[in-house]
Structure to design on (419 residues):
């Protein structure tokens, strides 16, 4: 099953690199969105999958009678290319709202350099750094949103998970950007609060290196009983191969997060080597909204969405499109400011609950045209934006398995524990 999905991803990457640069603008679209996705770089495994969910949303809005357009740009999982992609989408393509980026280390520079100065709302589907909640440049301006939770919660659950699994000496190998640093800090606080000891903390660059032998040696010299991999598949695939080749797995276990929740790493490293190791990731509430999204996704692509943050990307597109529909229903011009001002209006209580899919979009438009309130319930969870543009969703505890799709969900943790 995954092999079929993998071939679709490869095809979409090839098409994307051609279409982003030269595709003509769709006629009749009521709103233009810019999709910031990592088609290359350390998070390239995720980029094409985000596009699949975005294209699904475009098709559904079209069928519901409110056509939208998404033009995609490759962030390359790096700040400078990400900023350039965002600038092109806003200044050349005239995107009225930005969806993405994935990495916090890309989302934040885009926000400070492009979206906030240009007064275009940016809705990240996968950037979880706690810094995003209180970004100084956005204070009093309200242009930065996200449909995934802050790592202020995931780090706490991760620290609790490590201690509950019996680990007392942890070392963290983390990507040196706001995502890695924020998650590492929260993990350390939660783990040490329970009595654990952080015996090693080693950062690595966002750009994948050919080897991490010296960094691994520094980590393992501290004699940890667990190594926490806080980063992305592009780097983790390299250093985990060296981890196993050096026999470090004989003395220390591994613990993962959303960034290293991968369906490609088990195939590259040997599924048997990763099987049994736990991880955390922003999860989904479940229920009708998720069921509709998964049903529609499977009907279009043949498989269920295998990677994290796909439902979050879909939710970001849905809420942005509904915000534009609210502008039109109120007799206002669809502008970046109007879309920004209606994000909470269509996603937060009060109002009739709106679910994913064509029927949900069509019902939302009918209610808006009748002057009624709506409350979009997302596939990833309620998209109730607070004053910082944040949402709260459960944290999933998951585990690697030896069989495809190599990942299984263990449980969802919705209650916020003490540190």
């Amino acid at each position: 099953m995954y092999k079929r999905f993998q071939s679709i991803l490869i095809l979409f990457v090839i098409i994307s690199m051609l279409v982003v640069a030269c595709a003509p603008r769709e006629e009749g679209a009521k709103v233009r969105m810019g999709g910031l996705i990592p088609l290359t770089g350390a998070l390239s495994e995720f980029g094409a999958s985000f596009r699949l969910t975005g294209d699904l949303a475009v098709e559904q809005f079209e069928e519901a009678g409110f056509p939208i357009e998404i033009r995609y740009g490759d962030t390359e999982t790096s700040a400078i290319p990400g900023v350039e992609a965002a600038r092109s989408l806003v200044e050349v393509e005239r995107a009225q709202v930005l969806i993405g980026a994935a990495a916090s280390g890309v989302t934040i520079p885009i926000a400070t350099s492009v979206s906030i100065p240009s007064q275009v709302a940016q809705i990240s589907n996968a950037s979880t750094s706690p810094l995003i909640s209180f970004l100084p440049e956005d204070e009093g301006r309200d242009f930065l949103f996200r449909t995934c939770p802050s790592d202020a919660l995931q780090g706490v659950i991760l620290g609790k998970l490590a201690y509950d699994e019996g680990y007392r000496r942890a070392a963290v190998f983390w990507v040196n950007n706001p995502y890695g640093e924020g998650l590492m800090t929260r993990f350390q606080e939660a783990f040490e609060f329970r009595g654990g000891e952080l015996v090693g903390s080693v950062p690595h660059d966002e750009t994948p290196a050919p080897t991490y032998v010296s960094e691994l040696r520094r980590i393992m010299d501290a004699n940890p009983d667990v190594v926490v991999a806080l980063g992305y598949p592009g780097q983790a695939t390299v250093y985990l191969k060296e981890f196993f080749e050096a026999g470090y797995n004989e003395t220390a276990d591994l613990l993962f997060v959303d960034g290293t929740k991968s369906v490609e790493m088990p195939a590259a490293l040997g599924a048997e080597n990763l099987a049994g190791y736990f991880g955390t990731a922003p999860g989904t509430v479940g229920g009708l909204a998720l069921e509709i999204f998964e049903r529609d996704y499977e009907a279009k692509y043949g498989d269920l969405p295998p990677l994290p943050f796909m439902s979050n990307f879909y939710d970001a597109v849905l809420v942005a499109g509904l915000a534009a529909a609210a502008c039109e229903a109120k007799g206002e011009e669809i502008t970046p400011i109007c879309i920004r001002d209606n994000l909470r209006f269509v996603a937060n209580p009060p109002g009739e609950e709106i679910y994913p899919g064509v029927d949900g979009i069509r019902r939302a438009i009918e209610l808006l045209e009748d002057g009624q309130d709506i409350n979009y319930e997302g596939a990833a969870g309620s998209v109730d934006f607070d004053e910082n543009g944040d949402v709260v969703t459960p944290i999933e505890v998951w585990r690697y398995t030896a069989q495809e799709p190599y990942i299984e969900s263990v449980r969802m943790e919705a209650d916020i524990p003490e540190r």
Q: What stands out?
A: Residues 354 and 376 are 4 Å apart (CA to CA).
